[in-house]
Design a protein that fits this description.
5peptide_repeat; Pectate Lyase C-like; 18-stranded parallel beta sheet; single chain; 18 strands; Pentapeptide repeat-containing protein; mainly beta
Length: about 220
């Protein structure tokens, strides 16, 4: 029988090595919803307020691109690198992000509810509000990120690690977590505390959350 008091290490994200491909610079052709694009490089261009719904970007590269106001609803981004992306507001509900990297980017309000994130690495980035309600995260690594508000109501997370991240508000109402590693995250506020089941935290984090956990469980703490 396993010892219930014995610490269990969370399974880390499983992210395969991606092969390097030669990309062709974007020729400025208009991007439309439903289009498919493969091995294209978009560098230092504005792609604002575009209708990219249900578009597919495979093995592409985005560098220094402004995506503010663009609609990526239902879009597929596969084996794509995004670097130094700017977006004050980005719509990407029900989108698919598979085997991608997002690096050194600044995003404002991101609508990614009911999206699928699979083998995604996000590093050195700032996100003001990430609406991940009802989303599915598998093998996701967040490194050195600052997230003001992360709303994961009803989300399903498997093998997700937050490494040296700051999360000011984390919402886990009705979330389902397996091997979610929060030990290296600075958590200011957590709601939906039942959603922490399946997460790994440090003793210090547990102490910081003790008051909220007591209130959640209806425990009254008083002096003798």
């Amino acid at each position: 029988m396993p010892n219930p008091l014995e610490p269990v290490q969370p399974v880390p994200p499983k992210i395969a090595t991606r092969k390097q491909v030669a990309r062709t610079p974007w020729d400025g052709e208009r991007l439309l919803d439903g289009d498919s694009h493969a091995t294209v490089s978009y560098e230092q261009v504005e792609l604002t307020d575009l209708d990219l719904r249900h578009s597919t970007f495979s093995e592409c590269g985005f560098t220094g691109v402004d995506l503010t106001g663009s609609d990526l609803t239902g879009a597929h981004l596969v084996e794509t690198e995004l670097t130094e992306i700017e977006a004050a507001h980005l719509k990407a509900p029900r989108s698919l992000w598979r085997h991608n990297t997002l690096t050194r980017s600044r995003l404002g309000a991101v609508e990614a509810y009911e999206a699928t994130l699979d083998q995604l690495v996000v590093s050195d980035s700032k996100i003001s509000y990430l609406n991940g309600r009802g989303s599915i995260w598998s093998d996701v690594l967040m490194q050195r990120c600052v997230i003001d508000e992360l709303d994961l109501l009803g989300a399903k997370l498997t093998r997700v690690r937050f490494e040296d991240c700051q999360i000011r508000s984390l919402g886990l109402d009705r979330a389902s977590c397996r091997s979610v590693d929060l030990r290296s995250a600075e958590l200011r506020e957590v709601t939906g505390l039942a959603g922490l089941a399946g997460c790994t935290i440090t003793p210090e984090q547990l102490y910081d959350l003790s008051g909220a956990l007591a209130a959640h469980l209806g425990i009254h703490v008083a002096q003798h």
